[in-house]
Structures are given as structure tokens and as C-alpha cells.
Amino acid sequence: GIHYVGQMEEGSLMRFLVDQLTDGQLEWAPLPATYDAVVLGDPQGAGKTFHIHSGKREYFQRLKEQFPGEAAAIDEFQRLVKSAGRGVVLLGILKMLPWFLARLLIHSRLLPRLCSFSRLASHSLKEVVDGLTSNPELRAVLSYIFPTYGVLPSKASFTMHSILVTHFLKGAWYPKGGAGEIAFHIIPVIRKAGGNVFGKAPVQRILLDAQGRACGVTVKKGQDSVDIFAPVIISDAGIFNTYERLLPAAARALPEIQSQLRMVSPGEGGFTVFVGLNGSREELGLEPTNYFMFPGSDLDGMMKRYLALSREEAANNIPVLFVTSPSSKDPTWQMRHPGKSTLAIVTFARYEWFEEWKDKQVHKRGDDYEDLKKAFVDAIMQTVFKLYPRIEGRIEYLSGGTPLTNQHYISSPHGEFYGIDHGIPRLQMEAIATMRAETAVPNLYLTGQDLCLGGFMGALQGALICTSTILKRNLYMDVVRLKMRLQAANSKK
């Protein structure tokens, strides 16, 4: 699901685009001004809670208030984030430029000299933040949002981190009615334009004609398979699924495809706990603010130690929890489900810890698997009870999802949340330009978060880049012009 989205303020270009895609039917609820909170240590003991505030100036000003004496470090962090954020358009430019022009630009070595986005892409988040301050708590708070793109601070590009900080500077929003409303309101727009959407129709393979061009897909329908033919095939299944599972072996072996596969690796696996509660938000003391909970301030060290543990040790050494209450963020929830509430908790978990059960049928993986899953769920809930003590004894539903759960339900090859890894290699200019919508298979295109970046907004940019490539026109400029034209028309009314 979607936990929160930035850049949805009225009048923004991305809000305008989403309004167009949903015919203006999708509504967004703003989160509180303090949309995130960072807990370092035990929330019922000696731990400290720091608040992240929306607003281009307020974000940094509130940090200074919480860290007196660290104004210079926070000012420099602000400058670097702003500097890196300005160059984010490079992501689209390098992917939409003709390949020979993109390569020429990269090999000229001008980009790192002219653009902080390119220069800072090679520096890790940990390296930059450690250079700004020796205060371990401030280092942690400046780095806290790394779980939303799934990379340790020592392996994360500072540019990637800057994109996320900038994304939420003006606040955070949640789709009214929940994340399902996004698809619900987009489908009628697709059908109105002559398209269609089929559920429970898994694609089994991409069909190629005698010349090796993509010409359709084979879709499972009940126990049968149906071939659907089309002049253009667009895959949002992710690069590994598209190339390694859906393409025939001969196409998979193409040098260009093998070159792309060598440039990327799967992201880190994830573990999720879903909680259904008897009681309203007010009764249970739940908040719409998202909580990032860490047992200490050495975020990178804790993550490294955790991922190096055996699966038996891991459950008792979880280094981060993202705790959120979807029901508290949705103003329509209480009307639809009075007296009920929900929580979702997310953390990292290595695919290898659960891999031995990958070939077992879902819900039939045996006692050892269930015991391991329960160990994680129990450890996670003990920490959540410290944050929200009133939920104890009010749980009606409790379910844990391992990397194998992600593999089964969202077809992530290694149980990852965000597709291919968002580490430093992915943000290098050569990798950005190489991972483009057009593939080595004629008529086959990539879209979504593997093409651009993870999350709702990253996938949306992937869609714009893909459609621009297919239509051979810059859809970003089309959206800007349409927005200006509609604003001018409305101002005359």
C-alpha cells in the first residue's frame, strides 16, 4: 500500500497530473504539519523523539530548535539538499535524450562540474552527514528517511536521499479512502480512452514474432491461457520479472539486456505486520503521524549488524520500525468502519532468511516457517506496544508478511518493496541513461519504478518517461502547457 505521498499540494504540477489521470475524482487528505517523528531508543524509557515538520523553511528551522548549537550543520544540509534537488530533471533528460547524445553528455565529464545532482550521486548519505556534524542524534535524524527507499546510509546516494527530503518538504498527503482509490479512479479514465483493465489475469510470457519483435502477451485465464496481441507492449513488472521471467531465452540473452541486468541488483527484502484493532483512533491514542523507531542513533551500524545475523538471531535485533496508522490518516475511515482502527508496521528482512520455503504453497509452508514469522511479529509488537500502549488487548487481527509474502502477492523476485536497489550505482549517470524505456526488443518498453525511482511518484515519472519515448514527444511539456491553458481559461470565468 501507499503510506504517504509528497508534492500533492493544490496547484502543484504533480497534483495537476494526478487530477488529470483520475478525472479529478481522487481526493487527498493532508497529514499533520508534523508528518514524521523519529524515535531514538525506548519511547517509554530514556529514548528521545524528534519531529519532522513540513514547510520549506519550517523543516530546517524546527530541526534547529531541536538541536540548538547545530545551526551551521543544518544550514549546510539544507544547502546540499537544495543543490542536489535542483538537478533531479537530469533523471528524465538522460532517459529521454537519444542514446548517443546521452552518452556524449556523460563522457564529456561536464555533468559533475555543472550539476550537484551528478556530483553528490557518488557520495554516500553517511559520508555527507558524518562530515556535517559529530552529534550522533542529529546524524540519525538527518538520515532517518532511508527506509522509504530501502538502502543503508553507507550505501545510499546522498542525491537519492535529497530527492526524498525535497519530495516531502511541503508536506505529506494520503489518498482519501485508502490506496485502492487510486486504481479505482484511474480505471474509468483508461476505459473512457478506449483501453481496458483486467484483474486476476497474470501475464505468463511476452510473445515475440519471427523477427524478434514484441507482439503480445500470454495471460492466464482460470486454467486456460489466452494470447493478447498488440503493436506495443509496456511492462510495469520490473526489470527482473520482464527480462528473466517473461522474455524467451533468446531475447534474454541479447547483449544490451544482459548489460542492463549486470548494472542492477534486487533491493533489500521487507517484512510487514498488519494490525486490525477494536477501538477508534481517539480511544486507542493513535496518530496520523508516521513513526520511524530506532533502538539507537547508529542507524548504519545497527542495520549492518542486523543484516549479518542468522535468522534465529535477527528477530530480537530489529534495527528499525516504520509504524503508521492508515485508518488515522484517512478522514473517511470512521464513517466506513466506526469503532475500528488499523496499524501497519514495516521493517527490513533478508530474503535468504526465508528462502528455504520459497517453493512451498502459500499458507502451507509448515510450522518452522510460521514459528520464524511469529518470532518477528512478536518482537515487532513488543516495540509497538511501547509507542501505543492502549492497543494491548484490543487486537482483532494480526498478520505478518515475509519477503516470500511479497514475492507471492506483488511478484517481487526477492521480496523487495521498491524494485531494483536504490544504492549509489543506480544514481550514476551511466546507469540512469542506460535504464531507459526503450528496450533491445523492438516494441517492448519498460515503465514504473524500475525505470525511474521507487514509490508512487517515482513510478509516475517512469510512466511519463515511457509515454514520452513511445509517442516521441515530451509529455512533461504537454502537462505544463495543459495546466497553463486550463488556468488561463479558469481565470477568465
From TrEMBL:
Keywords: Endoplasmic reticulum, FAD, Flavoprotein, Lipid metabolism, Membrane, NAD, NADP, Oxidoreductase, Signal. Its main location: endoplasmic reticulum. This is All-trans-retinol 13,14-reductase. GO terms for cellular component: endoplasmic reticulum membrane. One of its GO terms (molecular function) is all-trans-retinol 13,14-reductase activity. It is an enzyme of class 1 (oxidoreductase). It catalyses: all-trans-13,14-dihydroretinol + A = all-trans-retinol + AH2. It is found in: Endoplasmic reticulum membrane. The lineage of its organism: Eukaryota, Metazoa, Chordata, Craniata, Vertebrata. Belongs to the carotenoid/retinoid oxidoreductase family. CrtISO subfamily. Its EC number is 1.3.99.23. It is a peripheral membrane protein.
